[in-house]
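Journal club side-thread
Mid-discussion, someone asked how the predicted structure for our own chain would compare to the paper's figures. Pasting it here so we can look after the session.
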Amino acid sequence: MAKIECPKCNKVIETTGLVTVCPDCGQDMRGVMERLGSIDEDNRPKLGRNDSMTTHEYIVRTRNLWKVYQMGDVEVPALRGVDIDIRRGEYLSIMGPSGSGKSTLFNMVGGLDKPSEGSCFIEEVDMGQLDAFELAWLRCRKIGYIFQSFNLIPVMTALENVTLPMIFAGMTSDEMLERGQFLLDVVGLGDRLHHKPFELSGGQQQRVAVARALANAPAIILADEPTGNLDLQTGKEIIELLRRLNRESETTIISATHDLKMIDVSDRIVHIRDGQVERIDNRADIDLKIGTMDGQEEV
């Protein structure tokens, strides 16, 4: 629970979510919320932070989550009543065949789409009830994204790509440069600061994407098929990097993937089929053996 004070009427408001208007005098509270969510370099871990407004065990919860797409006169359900609880600091993988609904679920958790029915809560805030400003505020400060196709801006250097999200969080130029260099060093690219994407390998581009996801020290990282465009060895390195970051910063990582190697580093694996949760496995309960055959890794 956080307490914020109205700068006009001095009303103290207790909230577990976002407040944009004072309920008493109607004062715009967005500036107060911006300061509350600003980055404090002295009081947070280097890679991540836990500045949550709540101390609830679960950082993500979905309740009876439905998403139905209208295709002309036909309704196509992508999600059908999904209920999931994701703990703070957990490494969770969402697996399922193409068309199972895992990417749709991923978009719901990331605030990139709104449910047709039901609710998705991030730190007890119902994403479906937020307006555009509130969603942007939450995504900027609470969620980092890693995409299969890297989604780097081709005309910008690695350092510029990493520091771009920091602009929207209100960091100064000196803070951005210092943190950007630190994050690229963390992912092993301290000597590639000024290289543009076309001058980097696929694995290096994905490392830049990982550093960019950590830019504003998010509470959650969403990784959408992070190894999908990488070779076997590079994909393994990215998986190990994500797991190390998860352990060191206690950042919650949610990965949508087809890669069975993700099972080995996940705390739990959610299997999605036909828009529903088929089952949830704990890593400790899975008998997984990884070996090699003709120089190729086998799961």
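Post-session note: The CA atoms of residues 186 and 211 lie 8 Å apart.
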